[in-house]
């Protein structure tokens, strides 16, 4: 059992080390991402995009019902060439039903072709909204690829519009234009639940609870460690007590009683020869005592067992000692005026003195 517990303890420690290592790696990865994201904020209109990923919360209803207000969206800043290739595939396909939603900073002031001059847009989009200098997420409607323009200066011109045409910023015919420079990312994930969580965390109560959770976790785990340590100590003491039977496993009950008598003789008289006065008359104490096969720890345990047994019996250790030295009637004269509780106390004191003498 002890070996099994030891193996479980090793397995638990290995699991704890693995979890700790994974948390440490995650912490380093997230930390590096946050640092690089903060360093590149100037190139992303003040937005932190660690490893190209960003998270935003929808503020208006221009993309309802797909993205209700307070929905959280996760974006990734894909390469403009990859976005253009995917758009071409969707645009020219007659069977593939898909769309691309893009997050951008609405501030483009460069040159571009009006939607009315682009056949694919002319019949639907005719009113360009003015720049609002804020982050927006709308659906991609068209990409004008200008190969002769340097990348970063408007090689890719994106035409986007909201899906909720009843809303002011995505009303019928309205659209927005931006280049690869204003691109912040393509929407990968959206979740109203995640948006609610972000909103809760941003609130004072949410922030307080977020700080209390790890604190409560530390208190709980510390308490569990203390309880586990106390329990382990008790189990070890119990195992140590049980293990005392190891040296007695090969002895019969009669042999164990005889050994106890030998130990009692040693305590009372300082030698094993007097065990014959304690053992029943039919039993004999052999010259070669069986104590030689018993460990020192087991001998000490036997002493404790005998003490417990004698304290329960009427025949006390003190009276047994006195039998050898004081006549029985005198013993009665000495003890007749002493209460039973005092007699028990005297027994314990005498035993302590005798054990001190023999050691």
Describe this structure in words.
The structure is a single chain. This protein has 359 residues and is α+β, with helices and mostly antiparallel strands. The protein folds into 2 domains: 40-202, Umud Fragment, subunit A, CATH 2.10.109.10; 252-358, no CATH class. The protein is built from 10 helices and 8 strands. The protein has helices spanning 2-39, 80-91, 119-122, 192-202, 204-243, 253-269, 296-312, 317-323, 328-335, 340-358, and strands spanning 53-57, 72-76, 101-105, 127-128, 135-145, 156-161, 174-179, 183-191. Helix 4 (192-202) crosses helix 5 and helix 6 (253-269) crosses helix 7 (296-312). The longest helix is centred in the middle third of the chain and has 40 residues, at 204-243. The chain starts with a helix and ends with a helix. Mean pLDDT is 76; it is low at 281-288 and 314-334. It comes from Treponema rectale. The chain crosses the membrane at residues 14-35, 197-220. This is Signal peptidase I. Keywords: Membrane, Transmembrane, Transmembrane helix.
């Amino acid at each position: 059992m002890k070996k099994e517990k030891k193996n479980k303890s090793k397995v638990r420690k290995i699991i704890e080390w693995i979890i700790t290592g994974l948390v440490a790696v995650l912490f380093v990865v997230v930390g590096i991402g946050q640092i690089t994201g903060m360093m590149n904020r100037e190139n992303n209109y003040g937005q932190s995009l660690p490893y190209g990923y960003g998270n935003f919360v929808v503020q208006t209803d221009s993309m309802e019902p797909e993205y209700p207000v307070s929905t959280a969206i996760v974006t990734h800043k894909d390469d403009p060439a990859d976005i253009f290739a995917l758009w071409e595939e969707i645009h020219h396909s007659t069977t593939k039903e898909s769309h691309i939603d893009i997050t951008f900073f609405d501030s483009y002031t460069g040159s571009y072709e009006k939607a009315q001059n682009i056949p694919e847009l002319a019949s639907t989009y005719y009113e360009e909204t003015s720049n609002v200098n804020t982050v927006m997420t709308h659906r991609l409607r068209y990409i004008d690829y200008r190969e002769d323009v340097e990348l970063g200066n408007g090689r890719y011109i994106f035409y986007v519009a909201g899906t909720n045409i009843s809303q002011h910023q995505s009303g019928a015919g309205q659209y927005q234009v931006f280049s690869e420079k204003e691109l912040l990312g393509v929407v990968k994930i959206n979740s109203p639940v995640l948006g609610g969580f972000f909103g809760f965390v941003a609130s004072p109560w949410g922030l307080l609870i977020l700080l209390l959770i790890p604190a409560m976790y530390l208190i709980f785990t510390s308490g569990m460690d203390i309880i586990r340590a106390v329990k382990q100590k008790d189990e070890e003491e119990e195992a140590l007590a049980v293990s005392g039977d190891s040296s007695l496993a090969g002895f019969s009950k009669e042999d164990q009683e005889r050994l106890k008598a030998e130990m009692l003789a040693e305590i009372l008289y300082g030698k094993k020869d007097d065990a014959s006065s304690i053992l029943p008359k039919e039993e004999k104490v052999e010259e070669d005592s069986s104590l030689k096969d018993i460990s020192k720890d087991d001998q000490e345990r036997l002493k404790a067992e005998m003490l417990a047994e004698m304290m329960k019996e009427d025949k006390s250790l003190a009276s047994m000692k006195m039998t050898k030295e004081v006549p029985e009637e005198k013993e009665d004269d000495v003890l007749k005026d002493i209460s039973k509780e005092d007699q028990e106390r005297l027994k314990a004191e005498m035993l302590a003195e005798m054990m001190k003498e023999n050691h």
